[in-house]
Amino acid sequence: MLRLWTLGQRPAVGPPSRWIHTTVAISAAPVVGSSSTVASVTDSSAPKWTPNSIRTGLIARKRGMTVLWNDQGVRLPVTVLQLENCQVTANIRTVRRNHTEYHAVQVAASDRPHKTTTRQMLGHFKKAQVPPKRIVREFPVTPDAHVPVGTTLSAIHFVPGQFVDVVANSIGKGFQGGMKRWGFKGLKASHGVSAAHRSSGSAGNCQDPGRIWPGKKMAGRMGNKRITTQNLAVVRVDTSLDLIFVRGAIPGVDDAHVLIRDAKKKMTALSSANQAKGLYEKVLPKGVDDMPFPAGTADLARVLPPIIEAPAYRRSPFIPQE
């Protein structure tokens, strides 16, 4: 079970811290949070999360890195992600040429002035009844995971203890050599090598083919590329400030927009491989009984404690698990 601590009750163990033909609007079911932490506020008739469900992701800003200490005194490096008025602007349903369907939820975040927004986007946001936004992205979902247009999403969309994937553009490092870009070891630093210690060496081929094959590892521009960091654990969620504390580092500069979604390898792929329909314990990590479905909203966050932390499990095989 998750530990729920209010701001005044938290123990002082460390510093705080993209086909065709038709696109149809979907009317989604009401948003109801369902997790072990909100059992008292869920509706039994509301749609429930299943291991085959794919929820929408969120758009957040990377605020930087800090450290946390769990209740066992273990120091955890974390990245702080903050939501800026993240709202749903459209539900997408597209019928492909092979008669399969594509479902997605379009999310926008970070308010911007009207005068810097194009007329086309102003009309789009007006139809959704949300203020103009700086960034708009869509997340593929299952047909049961559509969210009503205009819904404000909260950090409680992700439950502490679960795993997430974070997508962002990596920091640009300019033109770099083969050693820095690909990890080549370079040439000898002794006899017979003259001012070419960090060179990649010969890159040519014989008369056939007489050229360099595309994709060869050579010097070139490094960074500034879309990167997905997978299977990062959510350590803490701050519902009052819409903060998500993710263990480890993520790509991108500070204040850059990042995309956060449920970990595919830990949840979606695992449920498909095991055919674990209804077997939550084979998909969700320890300490997480259920997920807010179809999304964690700002209304749900108001009835929860301001700070929710994941339980700390001992990793030593010689110490009994909690």
Automatic annotation (TrEMBL):
One of its GO terms (biological process) is translation. Its main location: mitochondrion. One of its GO terms (cellular component) is mitochondrial large ribosomal subunit. It is found in: Mitochondrion. InterPro entries: Ribosomal_uL3, Ribosomal_uL3_bac/org-type, Ribosomal_uL3_CS, Transl_B-barrel_sf. It comes from the Eukaryota. This is Large ribosomal subunit protein uL3m. It comes from Collybia nuda.
